[in-house]
């Protein structure tokens, strides 16, 4: 239930003063002076940043702004590997972090665009198109191509696509969004039919978890379809998140699908992870 009166959901509010960040003259929009962290998407009033005296109030030349050291660290860690294949030695496997850039036309960065298109078709081998009820759009397409929206639920600006390839094929795909140091989500993971049951998803998830741990991300969450819930819990070390644990994630909007079970895994401070 939504409380009556002037009430705004936590992600809409300033992280310093907890008041809303809407434009006073047009409440459908965000106040243009409000800074939004490129990494965690927390919002801050420009005045609140100045008064705190601790935060850098300037956007970088790309228009990006990062709210704290951990966001800065995560973001620069991602930028270092973006688009650069990381070789895994065995079977000529390599994985690459990709992100669609709005300015990219196929001629700007044909390789990224073609890999993202292939990623989408691998996703569609595994998932029926997930239509958003109100708009009828395919959510998987929107996630991979970073459609943004004023609605948190439909804002996919922060997603990255991670692909596992060999010399000839794109094998597995995962979509990743890092909400600052506390939590990252991997809502969609898919492997091409002919590469199933070869441990490819495991290789990709292991690499992803290793990299997230290095970046200082504490937890990984995903919405598990009931048919594969046991695989995530028994083989990949995830646990079903209980309502108390769910409170940890208040203020974060995750991609979720009807009928899925919310699961999480500790990346840092988890003894079994190092075993
Ligand atoms: Zn909101
Ligand atoms: Zn404020
Ligand atoms: Zn941030």
Please tell me about this protein's structure.
There is one protein chain. This protein folds into two domains: 10-67, Herpes Virus-1 (2-Layer Sandwich), CATH 3.30.40; 72-274, Aminopeptidase. It is globular. With 275 residues, the chain is an alpha+beta fold. An eight-stranded mixed sheet has the order 5-6-7-8-9-10-12-11, sandwiched between helices. Helix 5 (200-214) links the parallel strand 9 (183-191) and strand 10. The chain has eight helices and twelve strands. One zinc ion is lined by residues 8-9, 11-12, 152.
Task: Give a short summary of the structure.
The protein is α+β, with helices and mostly antiparallel strands.
